[in-house]
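Example record

One chain of 189 residues, shown exactly as stored in the release files.
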Amino acid sequence: MNRIMVVIASLFVAGAAVAQDSPVTVGNTYVELGTTFENETLLSIGTGVGAGAVSAYGELSGSTDGNFQARAYTDAEFGSFKITPGLNYHWGADGGDLVGFGENNEWGDVTGDLEVSIHPGLVGGEYVFANTAVGLDGWSLDWAGGEVGAGYKLDLAENVYLDGRVSWSYDDQFESGDRRFVAGFGLKF
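Predicted structure tokens for this chain:
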């Protein structure tokens, strides 16, 4: 677990070092509306800055099942490879409140995640990915499993895209979980 956190921290530091030599772009704002095809609708709003092959984002997302997430993440592109580490705060129906202070309130969950994806570009926007998450509980780290899958991102216009993916989850014992389909429509500003 400590190694995963060291890798995530190293990517943040490497991203800052690379960004010093590149022009900075501000305003990578996006809105995504998606579905899991299981009576769940997803909405994400985010913005970020970028320099060269490295970008940093802040995102707020929620779903119709009553769960919400605030996320800070960065991504670094190395040719066809993309590495995306992030830090997340979850609250809602699965447990936790936005603010844990006060009577009958409890804090949500904090997790760190890392996704590695390959975008070969043979047909267009196809990609494969694997990700993992680590839960931060006080001073301990709890590995929470992750997902593997594939997807396709289709740019309809310069600032409009469709993204679809299928993934299979695995738990902390590498036992296979549910298959999940997600499709979304996005706007970039």
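Notes: Residues 2-19 form the longest helix (18 residues).
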